[in-house]
Amino acid sequence: MAIYGEDIYTEPADLDLDTLANLGPLTALAGSFQGTRGLDVNPKPEGPRKQAFIETIELEPIDPQANGPQLYYGLRYHAHVVKPGEVETYHDQVGYWLWEPKTGTIIQTLTIPRGQTALAIGRASQDATSFELVAKRGETGNGICSGPFLEEAFTTLEYRIRVTIGAAGTWSYDEDTIMQVRGLKEPFHHTDRNTLSKTAEPLPNPLARAKP
Ligand code: HEM
Question: Does 81 sit in the ligand 1 pocket, CB within 6 Å?
């Protein structure tokens, strides 16, 4: 790819090691958050079921990550969701949010314990306050990979997330996971949304913490 030059091995020199100062449009996502007004719409045999949920999410700055000449700054996250007043996990998700300053690319990786993983891609400006990422079944660059049961019974066609940065310390997301559910004629829109408020500031990434 012309943008990275011929040399695919040499890493950028003189990097800024402080991830928190280089997260571009992901800056407001760093830290610990809670959202008490989540809404999920999920597939049930009798039709779409709506469910309120409570979410905690931690997003921790990671050290700058180079793939040869390519450079990402990012956050490692864990989201945990319960129904109001319950302990049992209702949804769990881990992954990374990545920002590539050179190309204005944002990546979200997500893995959920249903046996499913996806990599969604979008683009944004350095100071964007809203951005959208998409993953599609069958794509090799921004795809969705499901275990055999889900692939057969809840074939996931597309995943889309729009993030909007709100007033100080808040951000929201709106997700649409489109799946072809066995027995249904039309694709099902499994949607989720929440607004998250900061409960703790992030720690700097390990290399930034170690700086004298
Ligand atoms: C806050 C976010 C989310 C919540 C609260 C949530 C919750 C749920 C719930 C309650 C079900 C139905 C479970 C059942 O009846 O067995 C479900 C189904 C499903 N979800 Fe999610 N989900 C979320 C996000 C996602 C995402 C991001 C994906 C994938 C990109 C995903 C993929 C699926 C699939 C494939 C199913 C169908 C399997 C099944 O119904 O057992 N979900 N989700």
Answer: yes
Give 143-166 pLDDT, tens digit per residue. Answer: 999 999 999 999 999 999 999 999
Rounded mean pLDDT of the chain?
97
40 CB less than 6 Å from ligand 1?
Answer: yes
Q: Which positions ≥6 away from 138 have C-beta within 8 Å?
A: none
Tell me which of 33, 39, 40, 42 to substitute to probe ligand 1's pocket, judged by most ligand atoms within 8 Å of the beta carbon. Answer: 42
**Cα 156 to Cα 181: distance, rounded to the nearest angstrom:** 8
Give yes or no for residue 72 CB within 6 A of ligand 1. no
CB 203 within 8 A of CB 209: yes
**In a domain? residue 40:** yes
Residue 1 belongs to a domain: no
Domain count, the chain: 1
Calpha distance 151→155 (Å, rounded): 5
The domain spanning residue 159 has which CATH number?
2.40.128.20
126 in a structural domain: yes
Q: Cβ(112) to ligand 1 under 6 A?
A: yes
Q: Separation of 42 CA from ligand 1 center, angstroms?
A: 6
Contacts of 89 (CB under 8 A, 6+ apart): 80, 81, 82
Domain extent, residue 100, equals 14-198
| pLDDT (0 to 100) of residue 211 | 79
